[in-house]
Amino acid sequence: MNLIQFFVANRIEVAELTLEHLRLVGVSMLLAVLAGVPTGILLARRPRLEKPVLGVANIVETIPSLALFGLLLPVPWLGDRADRLAILALALYALLPIIRNTYVGINGVDRAILEAGRGMGLTDRQLLFQVQLPLALSVILAGVRVATVVSVGVATIAAAIGAGGLGEYIFRGLAMVNNNLILAGAIPAALLALTADLVLGLAERRLRPDASPG
Amino acid sequence: MSSPGDGQTVIEFREVHLSVNGHRLIDELNLTVKRGERLVLLGRSGSGKTTTLKLINRLLEPSAGQVLVEGRATTEWDPIRLRRGIGYVIQEVGLFPHFTVERNVAVVPSIEGWARERIHERVQTLLRLVGLDPTLAGRHPSQLSGGQRQRVGVARALAADPPILLMDEPFGALDPITRAELQSEFRDLQQKLGKTVVFVTHDLGEALFLGSRIGLFDSGRLAGVYTPAEFLNTQDPNVVAYRCAFRGFGNGL
């Protein structure tokens, strides 16, 4: 049976695993954005926190993914469900690029713009929401984009702890020494990553402050 | 120097000192600004002109002494309220690049909660006032020339009709022709509106042209305050030095 025949014969299972994969990545990205963007904003306001916070996020980033999944397994509640655990681990990986880009994006806003805003009597909050965040948005999105693409890849490893997703095919293929099976997981995963990259890249370009007005 | 009780003093510096990280930026500054005057702060880079300006809208606070605006120390003002009553124009303009011209001019009126219709009318009036075609309202700052941007900056500072304008080398980055144009238009505008203006420059020609009085700064100290005529004739060594430097550049003085 060649690869195309495999996809046709197993189209429902492929679709299911792809959706599962999307869910792992989507939910973890949502969590990472919800935690990472406010953290980045905090760092921009309290530069003293930059080193320790980015340091911790950096260390998390260096833990091999398989090891992180394994380390989190005995944690109560979290270890009860594999997908829950996988989502948390993926979110942890996504934190660093999102925090860092939020911080860099906000800090990169031209000082003259900030001074003009402050001089006109904008409050810190108005400055943040009307000026800094909108101007940093494309940089923040670039961080989300990197995190998402990486996360699509790392999520295949989540199958090792039974969290499902396209990694199922890859691990099954490895166990059975079946290249078609490996490719059946790897190709849709690569397509997912490319699509996410493309879509987020387009959004990033549209949100760039110097982009032609639309 | 006038007493603060005559009802005409808008801004007053009383024995103001400012040190930041052990560096003395402003030393023993005493200065009074009257309603409707154009006070130019002149001096070389780092002499304390911009610092003095920022003490007025409380972007900086004095280490000692007091800065009074409308008779009240800036440290007793709510900084947000204080700043909304003071127009501020800087050399880099600092327009918000993601806002249209209209929204840029409307920043203070909108955070002050003006009605939409009133804001729109105000923006149209202001653009005409600073010599801009109101059809530019929908453009973004990146689509304007340097001179147009600085005009928008002036319009934005005037938006909520503040009685005081602070201007930090607003025309410094413009080509000489555009700069001369804006200088004379601005002088007419100020005379029409009667705003109190504190204007920072290092350009002697600009100071003589725009100032009703000129305050000369040297290394954080106010060396003296002169009318333009006095400035040209005094034998005060600080002033003489400044005049000579400009004559040396063949600046037509």
What kind of sheet is the major sheet of chain B?
Answer: 6 strands, mixed
Secondary-structure element order of chain B, N to C: EEEHEEHEHHHHEHEHEEHH
Beta-strand content bin of chain B: 25-35%
Globally, the shape of chain B reads globular
Number of helices of chain A: 9
Alpha carbon gap, first and last residue of chain A: 51 Å
| Share in β-strands of chain A | under 5%
Give the rounded overall mean pLDDT of chain A. Answer: 92
Helix content class of chain A: over 70%
What is the helical fraction of chain B, as a range of percent? 25-40%
According to DSSP, the number of beta strands of chain B is 10
Secondary structure class of chain B reads alpha/beta
Structural class computed from helices and strand pairing of chain A: mainly alpha
Mean pLDDT of chain B: 91
Biggest interface pair, counts: A-B, 21 and 29 residues
Main sheet overview of chain A: none
- Overall geometry of chain A comes to elongated
Spans of at least 5 consecutive residues with low confidence of chain B: 1-7
Task: State the end-to-end CA separation of chain B.
Answer: 29 Å
Count the helices of chain B. How many? 10
Identify the quaternary structure here: heterodimer
